[in-house]
Amino acid sequence: MLTISNLTKRFGEKVAVNITDYTIAQGTLLGLVGNNGAGKTTLFRLILDLLQADEGKVYMDDIDVSKSEEWKRHTGAFIDDSFLIDYLTPEEYFYFLGRAYGLKKEEVDARLAPFARFMSSEVLGQKKLIRDFSRGNKQKIGIIGAMLHHPSLLILDEPFNFLDPSSQSIIKHLLAEYNRETGATILVSSHNLNHTSDVCKRIALLENGVIIRDIDNAAHTAEQELEDYFSVDFQEETSPQ
Amino acid sequence: MASIFHLIGELRRLRKIAGKRHPMYEQNRFAKYLIGFSLALGAVYLIMFGVLFIGLFREIFPSMEPYHILNKGMLYLLMADFLMRFTISKLPVQEIKPFVLLPIGKNRVLRSYLILNGLSGYNLIWMFMLVPFGFGTIFRYFGLMGVLGFLVGYWLLMLLNNYWYVLCRTLMNQNILYVLVPIVVYASLLVGLLVPETNYIGNLCMELGEGFFQWEWPVYLGLIVAIGGMFELCHIVQKRVVYKELSKTEVVKKLKKVAEYKFLDRFGEVGEYMRLEIKLLTRNKVPRTQFFMGLSIMLMFSAALAFTDVYDGTFMRYFVTVYNFSVLGVLVLSQTMSYEGNYLDGLMSRKESILNLLRAKYYVQCILLLLPLAIMIIPIVKDKLTLLSALACFFLASGFTFWILMQLAVYNKLTLNLNTKVTGKNSGGTFFQSMIIMAGFFGPVIVIRPLIALFNETTALLIILGIGLAFTLTHPLWLRNIYQRFMKRRYENMEGFRSSIMNN
Q1: Which residues of chain B have pLDDT under 50?
Q2: Interface test with A, best of B256, B260, B351 (most A CBs within 10 A)
Q3: Is B349 in Cβ contact with A77 (below 8 Å)?
Q4: If you ran DSSP here, which 8-state letter would residue B211 be given?
Q5: Which pTM does this prediction carry?
Q6: Does residue B477 sit at the A interface (CB-CB below 8 Å)?
Q7: Cβ(B409)–Cβ(B486) below 8 Å
Q8: Are strands A185-189 and A202-207 parallel, antiparallel or unpaired?
C-alpha cells in the first residue's frame, strides 16, 4: 500500500505538489492525468525519493521512503532517459539490472521473453549502444528495465510517449496483464486520456499539484468526464476582446 | 543586424549569467576565494621570477643583456604556457545551437566566440613576470615606450599561442592522435633551438623580441598576420566540426564484439559495477580521450626521467613519480558522480547502488595503478628511481590521493557529458574540482620534501608508504563514509545533476 501524507513540494513561489492524504491500495492500476506543470512527474519523483519534500511523507507499506532504502527492491520505475545507462547495449543494461536484483542471466533472458512482441526484433541482438537507438526504442528499453525484476510497485511516467501505435497497444495490454497476474500496484501518468481510461481502474486528476478528482474507472466510464474537464471552448478563447 | 561588438558583449553576458547560475555556484564561490588566493600567490611567484631572472641572467651570461636571454628562450615560455592551458583552460566550445535559427550570420557567432576567447584575462597572466622584468632591463635603454612595446609584443605572442591551443584542442577532441601535432611542432622547434652550430630559431626569437621594444612595424605586422591566420584556421576547423555535429552525419556503428569481462562475475555486485566502470571508460569519448592523454603524459615523463637528466632534482623526480601514479585517478575520480549524473536517477532507485559504484570505481583505479608501476620500471632499471620510491608513490596514490579525490563524490553535482561535442554547453571542470586536483597532485610532493629534509630519504619514503598503506587498507571505512555523506546531500546533488544534463 502506498500512502501519501501531507505532501508538499514548492519550487520558489510555485506549489508543485500539495496532497493532504492519498492512499493507493496494493494492486491498483492508477492513471495520473493533468496538464503540463500539473505536478505528475514531481509527484513520481517524490514517491521515488528522488526529490526532497518540503513537508509530508510518502510511505510504502510502513516504510518512509526517505528514511530507508528497503522499498527499492520491490519498486520499478522509468521516468525519463536519466534512468538509462546509454553506453551499454540493451542486453548489457538488462543483465546489469538483473544482477542488481540478484537475477541470473538465464532468468533475465526468461523474463525478457514476454516482451518479444513489444521489442519487435528492433532492440535485442542489434549490437548497438542504447544511445544510438531511437527515442521510441529507448522508451521500450526503459519500460522493460523497470519491469524486469517483477516489482510490486511500478511507476511509469508517460509510457506511451514516442511509441508507435502498435507498441502503445502492446504496452497497454502488458500493463493490464502484469497487474492482473502479479497484483502489483501500477502508477502511470499520461496526457493520452484514451489510453489512460482504457487501461487504468482508477484515475487521479492532478491540477496545480492538487488531486482535484479521484475517478473510479472500473467500468471504463472516466473518459467522457476527463474529456469534458480538459475540453476548451475555442469560441470563447479565440473571440476578440 | 547586430554589430560584432554587440554580439561579443551579449555572449559575454550569457557566459557571466551561466557562471552565476551554475549548479555548483556555492562551492565555486568558496573555491573561487581559495583559487583567488592561489592565483595571488602564483602572481607573487611570477613577479619574483621576473625580478630574479634579471640578476640570474646577468650572472650567467655577463656578455649579454637579460632581455636577450629571455627572448632567446621565448619558445620555452610559449611551451610552458601551452601546457598550462591544458590544466586551467576549458575545452573550447561553441554554444552555437541557440543562434542557428536567429538572423545572425553563423560565421559571425563563431568568430565572436573566438574573439571572446582571445580577450580572456588568462592571456595576460605572464605580465606579472614580464612587467618587472621589462622595467628592470629594457627601461634604462629604451624607456617607457620600449617596455610597452616589449609587453605588447609578448601579449600578442600569448594571443597566438592561445589560438594555437584552441586549434590543437579542437582537433584532439575529434581524434586523440592529433596530440602528435603539438608534440611534433614543439619537438622540431626544440631541436632547432638546441642545435648549437646554427641556432637559427634562438637567433630568430632574439630578433623578434628586439623588434618588440624597438617598435619595428614589420615584426608587429608579421605577428598580427600570424594571429589572423591562426584565428582563421581555428575558425575553419571549428566551423567544419560544428556543422558536422549539427547535421549529425555520423553513421551509427555497430559493435564488432560486445566485451563481457566474465572474470568480474566472481566479485558479485561490485564486479558488475566494475564492468560498468570499464565500459564507461572505454565507450565514451571524454573519459577515453582523458585516459590516452594521461597515458601519453605518463610515458613522456617516464622516458624523460629515465633517459635525460631534466628531472634529476629531488623535487622534480618526486613530482613526476607522484604525477604518473596519480594522473589517471585524477582524470577519472575528480569527476566521480559527474559522469554518473547522466543516469543517476536510475541508480538512485536501486538500493546501495552508489556504495557499490564507489567501491567499483576505487578498485578499477587501483588496478589501473599497475600501468604506471609497469612504466616506471624503465627509470627503476636505469637507476633513476628506487623501487621503494615507486612503491611509496603507488600506495600514496591508492590511499591518500584517491581518498582526497573521491571526496568530490559528495560535492560534485554537475552532470558531465560523456561524449562532449564542440557545440555542447560549457561543462568543463569547476573551480572546486581544480582545487581538489591541485591538492591531489601537489599535496604529496609538499609532504615528501620536508619529510626528506627532516629524516633521510629512505625513512621519509617508509613514512609515505605507511601513510599510503593506512589509507589503502581503511578504504572500506572511508568509502562508506563518503557514501553516507553523499546520501545526506542526495536531494541537492540530484537537483544539480538533473538541471545540468546536457542536450546532446
Answers
A1: 1, 425-427, 503-504
A2: B351
A3: yes
A4: H
A5: 0.73
A6: no
A7: yes
A8: unpaired
Contact B22, B104 (CB under 8 A): no
CB contact under 8 A, A87 and B280: yes
In this complex, which of B258, B343, B348 lies closest to A127 when CB atoms are compared?
B258
Sorted by where each begins, the domain ranges of chain B are: 4-14+21-247, 263-499
Q: Residue ranges of the domains in chain A?
A: 14-80+144-233
Pick the closest to residue B213 from B155, B160, B134 (CA basis). Answer: B134
What is the C-alpha to C-alpha distance for residues A239 and A115, in angstroms, rounded to an integer?
49
Contacts of A99 in chain B (CB under 8 A): 269, 272
pLDDT in tens, A177-192: 999 999 999 999 998 8
Q: Is the ipTM reported for this complex over the cut 0.85? A: no
Instruction: Give the angle A90-A97-A128 at the CA atoms, nearest 5°.
Output: 15
CATH superfamily of A14-80+144-233: P-loop containing nucleotide triphosphate hydrolases (3.40.50.300)
Burial A129-147 (b: 16+ CB within 10 A, else e): bbbbbeeebbbbbbbbbbb
Residues B273, B162: Cα–Cα separation, whole Å: 40
Q: Does B288 touch chain A (CB under 8 A)?
A: no
Over the stretch B301-312, which tens digit does the pLDDT of each residue have? 888 777 777 667
User: Smallest Cβ distance to B255: which of A52, A77, A89?
Assistant: A89
For residue B169, what is its C-alpha cell?
584542442
B97 touches chain A (CB under 8 A): no
Q: In chain B, whose CA is at the least distance from the CA of A76?
A: B349
CB contact under 8 A, A88 and B345: no
CB-based contact B343 A86, cutoff 8 Å = yes
- Cα–Cα distances (Å) from B183 to A117, B304, B336, B500, in that order, read 54, 14, 30, 35
